[in-house]
Amino acid sequence: MSRWRHPLLILAAALMLLPILWAALVSTRPQDAIIGARLLTMPSLDAIAANYGRAVTASPLFGFIGNGIAVCSLILFFQVLIMVPAGYALAKLRFPGRETLWGGVLLGLMVPAPVLAMPLFVMVAMLGLMDSLPALVLPWVVSSLGIFLMRQFFRRVPDEIIEAARLDGLSELELLVRVLLPLARPTLGAFAIISLVAHWNELYWPSIVVTSAERATPPFGVMLFQTQEAGTEYGALMAGALIIALPLVAAFLLLQRRFIEGLVAMK
Amino acid sequence: MTQLSIGQLSKRFGAVDVLRDISLDVRPGEFVSLLGPSGCGKSTLLRILSGLEQADTGSIRLGVRELTGVAPSERDIAMVFQNFALYPQMTVRENIALPLRVRRLSRWRRMLRLGGAVAADIDAEVAAMARTLEIEPLLDRKPAALSGGQRQRVALGRALIRQSSLLLMDEPLSSLDARLRLQTRDEISQIQRQFGITTVFVTHDQAEAMAISDRIAVMLGGRIAQFAAPEEIYRAPASLAVAEFIGTTRLNRFETRVDQGGFLRLGPHALHRVAPELAGQDVTLAWRPEAFRLSGDGLPVLVRRLESHGADSFLHGECLGQPLVARLEPGPGLTAGETVRLEPRPEATLLFDAAGQSRPHAPAMALAHV
């Protein structure tokens, strides 16, 4: 089995990469080559300039990316702010209703996000937040997955460390920030990747609450751009798709070691 | 050096009485062990002393201060945990310095790592502590890079640096391997004397408790069964339960009855006279294996098996239909199958009444035959 492991993994990776490779090929060919399915011709500099130029000028692409960065980093910031103390309390503090709350977290893990879209939409609309940054951020700041991961992580921290800190005179906040958070970095890194990917690529929710290009996040913006402006300009469309994937790739490269450590630690 | 007084402390977990009416006075500078099997409440008592757990009733006084209701960090108590509980992401230096930083620097200066002159003092104290514990070369390492014995010293350093009035240790040797345990045991004892700090040490290992303590509180079933010097606990256990718990080998016990004349009888043998109020009562006689010597007019023992331990040898035999173990000096060769006479030394004879409490008897009177 181990002899075949690497070829199989390479094959799987190639299958995953194929659509991206396809997009890269399309984004570097002129329109007639794309329509004629002659993708294995030499890429032309003219076509690259035309497609990528069109991608960044025809729509406010960098505006979309800016929105995406703002939305994703705000979501992640508040998620961490909530999940760390919540996970700690669920793992290590004794208080009435703890098991019920934990049951709620598990339930939250099982409910698919689209199911909540309707009630969330009603709430956002009633609060008058349609087409705003809070509408994109607020529904996601409490992450069941994040609380779940942090609770599981904190449960593995020996009670004695927490008790030693109490005897040494650290406050609960200092204990959390100075002692426990540094230990949780791999888990936080893994969660950050999961959260960033999910919210960067989110299409469904923005399509419900965003109505203007000024507020559009990258995938939703590209979709707007496809239907309104580009029509069948596949080269430019693929160029735009590749550009909006870049920040995510950068984030992954930055966090990948922690991501892998975190996933290994989750076992 | 500060005195610790525990008065009538009780604690229940649900329906279980974990601690029942515990009273204990620890003298200034004394090293006291809480010794007992797991589940006897010794760790709970230690946690109540530290303030990590609350007692239901009772009082704890450290010096002149009542500690009930005082937060753990305000109790002037330091603790060494079983698994050392060092902060994994901090260096040895930071681990040892933390209790001082918390006490002497405001929260914001700590968070922002501003210290000034106070921080320089702390550094000097940490360096001095490291010198005392001989861990200077390790100061910039993290706990993961230390051996068990080194972690133990760091944990001790972190506890001692605050110069608390009371040091609590929860089985601090149990996570070390056997050889290191002996060495560390001696070091702890030496350091405790050097600092003169009143110490309460929890262990389930009687050899450890015997070797290290000024006095031992034997805890059984949530009570203090006996509180005395190690030698006294061994020589004069207060109850049958303590006698059975202390000692490396099995206790030889014989259920019998005191006759109306006040003589202790064992089968056809009358041993010595005991307190008159025991006349006619059921009692338990007990001897440790080393209580016997070969003698012409002792109890008849059928030799089943002999075991040589070098310096001495163990005789596994049968006396009055019951198994008996005796530790003898290697002497004339005995053989399995023969019957020898073993005389228990009167002063090593333990006598317990029907309730298992130790009863005085007259050790001067020798074994007599009827």
UniProtKB/TrEMBL annotation, chain A:
Specify whether Ligase is a keyword of the entry. no
- Domain of life, per UniProt, equals Bacteria
Enumerate the spans annotated as ABC transmembrane type-1 domain.
Answer: 65-255
Per UniProt, the keywords (alphabetical) are: Cell membrane, Membrane, Transmembrane, Transmembrane helix, Transport
Which GO CC annotations does the UniProt entry carry?
Answer: plasma membrane
Major localization class: membrane
- Name the membrane topology term: Multi-pass membrane protein
Protein localization:
Cell membrane
Q: Which family does the record claim for this protein?
A: Belongs to the binding-protein-dependent transport system permease family.
Q: What is this protein called?
A: Carbohydrate ABC transporter permease
TrEMBL record, chain B:
In the record, what terms sit under GO molecular function?
ABC-type transporter activity; ATP binding; ATP hydrolysis activity
Q: Organism's domain of life?
A: Bacteria
Residues annotated as domain ABC transporter: 4-246
**The UniProt record lists the keyword Membrane:** no
Q: Which UniProt keywords apply?
A: ATP-binding, Nucleotide-binding, Transport
User: Can you supply one Gene Ontology CC term for this chain's record?
Assistant: ATP-binding cassette (ABC) transporter complex, substrate-binding subunit-containing
Signal sequence extent: none
* SUPFAM superfamilies attached to this UniProt entry: MOP-like, P-loop containing nucleoside triphosphate hydrolases
Answer whether the UniProt record assigns the keyword Transmembrane to this protein.
no
By sequence similarity, the record places it as follows: Belongs to the ABC transporter superfamily.
**Protein name (record):** ABC transporter ATP-binding protein
Native organism is Rhodovarius crocodyli
